[in-house]
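BUG-335 | component: ligand-complex export | severity: low

The export step for flavin-adenine dinucleotide jobs runs without errors, but we want the raw record kept on the ticket for reference. Input record follows.
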Amino acid sequence: MLPDSAPRHRASISIIGAGIAGSWQALALSRAGFDVALFERDDPSLQSSTGHWAGGMLAPWCESEAAEPAITRLGLRSLDLWREEFPDTQRDGTLVVAHRRDRADFDRFARQTTGHQQVGRERIAELEPQLAGQFDRALFFADEGHVEPRVVLPRLHQRLGERGVPVHFCSAREPAEADGISIDCRGLAARAEGLRGVKGEMIVVETGEVALTRPVRLLHPRWPLYIVPRAHNRFMIGATTIESEDDGVSVRSALELLSAAFAVHPAFAEARIVEIGAGLRPAFPDNLPRIAIHGDRIAVNGLYRHGFLLAPALAELTAAYLTRGAIDNEVMTCA
Ligand SMILES: Cc1cc2nc3c(=O)[nH]c(=O)nc-3n(C[C@H](O)[C@H](O)[C@H](O)COP(=O)(O)OP(=O)(O)OC[C@H]3O[C@@H](n4cnc5c(N)ncnc54)[C@H](O)[C@@H]3O)c2cc1C
């Protein structure tokens, strides 16, 4: 993070979209000395943002199973930035489990990722007492973390307010309307060239019968899914990854998500369903994020399934570009 003591810049910057990408851009650029304003079309609940549906996992090592090394690199940096900004960011790790019949998937996941220890029944019982006896082996990614999107976004907006950054809700803007520098963080609404929506379905359940400390990922040949503990005995079960821009939830997906929860702990059978929904993840064809620079018009998009994981590091890169002209060749393009 650029320190507050960085040289002051007078340029004014309009950031469009107060989702996770735009909020972190506003924070980093304000810290770098710019005169920043954030504009959001939605009200503070941000129900039309993709982030509203997200798990909020900060899991650079787990995600490296299927993602490019750049995601891990930026994700590791982001973990530190989350911790610096919010020292109470949960960092209890991730537990990855599989049933015995899915041993091959477990072994493959272990081979394709780093940052984990393989643990047996005793350690599983210490980490998650309620999973005692359910699984023989697990992978423990001790340094991963998670945030609760619907809590952390208002906290970010509050932090911006405390720094004197105006956050204008119910204020749709287009980049062309902005004076000075604009940073387009509209997510899928930007309809940038090549950008597509990838559906992620999720279910929130509530039960006092299950207690988990950290996200638990269940490996399965057809539907690798996860359960993220939330406040007030709630659990977010997610998420499908479907090439579709329809934001409905299918019966098949709902059954699979609920079956996954039941497979992790049978007490989920009695849980109350609180919410079912889907968000569309903004993704470019290579599923990598992009900071596209066209003079004073900068667009930060394509955060795909890693918005919470990557937003702080991407914001730091934009600040480094605007203060020192630094370019990160993996994620920045200049026209
Ligand atoms: C089910 C699911 C689970 C996920 N889990 C995780 C996870 O565990 N970890 C993780 O890192 N990521 C996760 N993601 C991905 C993450 O949610 C996205 O990568 C992230 O939300 C993208 O952030 P964004 O700010 O680019 O877009 P958005 O979150 O969509 O925010 C864009 C904002 O711009 C606003 N906007 C649009 N047009 C305008 C306009 N004209 N003027 C002003 N404002 C405008 C929108 O209202 C919105 O608030 C998940 C996604 C889904 C769907």
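Assignee comment: Attached the raw record above. The two ends are 26 Å apart (CA to CA).
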